Structures are given as structure tokens and as C-alpha cells.
Automatic annotation (TrEMBL):
Name the record gives this protein: Sulfotransferase
Record organism: Dipteronia sinensis
Molecular function in Gene Ontology: sulfotransferase activity
PANTHER family: SULFOTRANSFERASE SULT
Sulfotransferase domain segment(s): 7-105
Family: Belongs to the sulfotransferase 1 family.
Keyword terms, alphabetized: Transferase
Signal sequence range: none
Length: 133
């Protein structure tokens, strides 16, 4: 497999070109399949999750066959669990701040993003971002 510099890979991805075909064609296929087989394929969009995370958290639990009980909903268990899975919570866990690898015994900083697309600016130039999207 041929590796590309990050700028070139970003340019290709922003145009929808990837090693396994055009990104949007693949996504359209998954979306159509989710409409035809909603019990087999759950199509979640990042924007929808950001808008109402608790609704989609409940939807995901239902899809996985682990629905919340009415009593759990009353006790706000859905809200509690979705907060546990949030970027803010995960990035502040001690294990994700700094840990040691048991084999190499070297320190590794595990970085969790903020759940925002702006994080890419640390790695790709503004020109690529502004021109790519």
C-alpha cells in the first residue's frame, strides 16, 4: 500500500477519494441499506448525536437489544451513562492522561480530541482545510 504525506492524504479525503472507493458513494450505500434493514444497520450522524445525545444513546441501546427500562429513564440513567461516554469525561480520566505501557515501560500520552472537527488544524494547514471543505 502506498503511503502519502499527510497534506496529500487530507486533500484526497476532502475530495472523497479513499483506498476503498469514493467515500460518499460508500456512505450512500450504508444509508440506503439502513433504510431497507433498520434492524440490521444503524446509521448515526455526528451532527445528530451532538444535537440530542441522550435520544441517540437510547436509540443505540434499543438497536443493540439492551433497551433502558421505564424506571431507568425516570431515574435519568440514560443521561448519566451518556455523560460517562462524553469526550469531556473520557479525556479527564486518569488512564487517558498519562499511562505506562507494560511491555516497553515507556510513558505514552493518550490524546482524546474535544469532539470537534477543529482539532484537525493541529495537523493540517489552514490552506488545505479552507480549500478542502
Amino acid at each position: 500500500m502506498k503511503l502519502f504525506p499527510l497534506e496529500k492524504a487530507f486533500e484526497m479525503a476532502s475530495q472523497g477519494v479513499q483506498g476503498y472507493g469514493h467515500f460518499w458513494v460508500n456512505m450512500l450505500g450504508y444509508w440506503k441499506a439502513s433504510l431497507e434493514q433498520p434492524d440490521k444497520i444503524l446509521f448515526l450522524k455526528y451532527e445528530d448525536l451532538k444535537e440530542d445525545v441522550n435520544f441517540h444513546f437510547k436509540r443505540l441501546a434499543d438497536f443493540l437489544g439492551c433497551p433502558f427500562y421505564v424506571d431507568e429513564e425516570r431515574r435519568e440513567v440514560i443521561e448519566e451513562r451518556s455523560k460517562l461516554c462524553s469526550f469531556d469525561n473520557l479525556k479527564n480520566l486518569e488512564v487517558n492522561k498519562l499511562s505506562k505501557l507494560p511491555v516497553e515501560k515507556s510513558k505514552v500520552a493518550i490524546v482524546l480530541g474535544r469532539g470537534r472537527c477543529t482539532y484537525v488544524r493541529r495537523f493540517v494547514s489552514s490552506t488545505s482545510i479552507d480549500g478542502g471543505f
